[in-house]
Amino acid sequence: MVTEIDEAVTVAAVFSRGSIRPVWFDRRGRQVRIREVAFTWKTREGNIPIFHFSVSDGQGLFELRYNTGSCAWRLHAGS
Amino acid sequence: MQARSVLHIDMNAFFASVEQRANPTLRNKAMAVIGSAHRGVILSPSYEARAFGVKTGMTYGEAMRACPKLRLVPADPAKYSHTCEELVEIWKEYSPLVELFSIDEAFLDVTGCEELFGDSVQIAIRIKERIWNEKGLTCSIGIAPNKLLAKLGSDMQKPDGLVLISPDDIDDVLENTAVKSLCGIGPSIAGALAAMGIRSCGELGRTPVARLTDRFGIVGERLRDMGLGVDRDPVIPLQESFEEEAKSVGHSMTLTDDCSDVDRIEQHILQLAEKIGRRLRRGSYHGRTVSLTLRYTDFRTFSRQTKLRHAVNHGLDIHAAARELLHSIPLAGPVRLVGVSVSQLEKNYSQMPLFGEERKRRFIAETMDTINDRYGDFTVTWGTLVERYRHGRVLSPAWRPAGDRRY
To answer: Do residue B375 and residue A45 have CB atoms under 8 angstroms apart?
Structure first.
């Protein structure tokens, strides 16, 4: 069951050739290593692109969001 | 003259397949995308769910009875529209003539592209590989000399199909194909044809035109062509469809709970009117006719419209007209869906505001648009809408990846 979390998180990501690949994120002091980036998609808040990443650590599924306006990551949902 | 080569690409169980990509735990499972978490119908069952008899349009109860282990996932239109935009970018690499038929279907006219990418079958294989490798999705492709037959071809092999109907095969393919398999022949026309003893395309193609026009009027000639596999419609490139002028702009919302409170319905109408006003202004449209649609819990649908003296594009004007329609009828029961639309549109309609109040109102609307364009819809809005109904985004069948229909 995926539930909404919506909290700011620290994310390590590789920005390369126009693509973004999150590698791990820090959640409540625990480093969650991303095993699979299952899907990515883009939305907008006004004219600011937001990148969405459906990621898995092998146990749970999470949705990370990267706001290109504020350069901030949020953990939007998790299971 | 070289025969045309048209591809029809149909993404297999599109919404469900996207959700299965996005959530690995859903892969190879019976699951279905639904309209909302609370109510609605099955929008897209996975192929695993279809094996249990789950179909698009079923209620949740019907679907769960057919497949008790079915997993239901609320629709996330942002994922689907973004994926569609990415697919369009792939398709455009193989032909400039790409017509988006719906969010998960497209026609490509690849006539003349053979020098670059190989024949139409090779192009179709390349496209299927790209979609699988880059998006993890499958599609069925029909290849034929026209759109009608290409669409028929893609329907013949699902999922992950590839069907070529070459000019020499057309008669054989159509001879025993049911007329209802052709895109454009719905249940009512198929029923009328059956009453005339016409069930297959072969029979339709051999029927004298006069007999068909006697029964169907001018459509008769078109039906006879369809029976023969003739379709002269061009593939309309995306850019042209973006530039097509809109005929109406509307929005509707299915409510989480049934509503009999007129004040709340008015608030929903204002929210819809604001969205419509924004879209009209964005496309430089004004509209003269405002329509209100209410759907009751028993699915009876009421629709009424009013024609205004002046064309409008301000949310408050649209709201006032729709509100008047609401008050002109007694509510027949709790409401589950509210819809507002504006039609009789005029592009670049210009009427200088004569009075100070009108000028102020236009200035405020423009300023609100600028702020909301920058920070997102409803960042600045009317006080009544601060506690507005937050429903998920819904993709209209007319959605396109750019132009006025994007919003």
So the answer is: yes
- Residue B378 has what DSSP assignment? T
Residues B292, B269 contacting (CB under 8 angstroms): yes
From B22, B82, B83, residue closest to A54, measured CB to CB: B22
CATH class of B171-228: mainly alpha
Average pLDDT value for residue range A21-42: 94
Every domain of chain B and the residues it spans: 1-165, 171-228, 246-388
Cis previous bond, B159, omega within 30: yes
Residue B382 is predicted with a pLDDT of: 87
B99 flagged as catalytic: no
CB–CB of B23 and A61 under 8 A?
A: yes
C-alpha B153 chain-centroid distance: 21
pLDDT, tens only, B295-342: 998 889 999 999 999 999 999 999 999 999 999 988 889 999 999 999
Secondary structure of residue B144 in the 3-state scheme: strand
Cα distances (angstroms) measured from residue B391 to each of B44, B88, B135: 20, 28, 28
Residues of B in Cβ contact (< 8 Å) with A42: 82
Q: Write out the two tokens for A79.
A: 């299971």
ipTM of the modeled complex: 0.90
Catalytic, out of B105, B243, B245, B357: B105
Sign of the CA dihedral with B23 first, then B27, B33, and B38 last:
negative
**A61-67 and A72-78: which strand pairing?**
antiparallel
The alpha carbon of residue A32 is apart from the nearest alpha carbon of chain B, in Å, by 17
* A-to-B residue pairs, Cβ atoms closer than 8 angstroms: 37
Which residues in chain A touch residue B372, judged by CB atoms under 8 angstroms apart? 46
- B79, B83, B374 member nearest A46 (Cβ): B374
CA B133 from chain centre, in angstroms, equals 27
| Closest CB to A38 among B24, B375, B379 | B24
Name the β-bridge partners of B325: none
Q: How far apart are CA B352 and CA B361, in angstroms?
A: 12
| Token pair in block for residue B369 | 């648009």
Class of B1-165 in CATH: alpha beta
- For the B246-388 domain, the top CATH level (class) is alpha beta
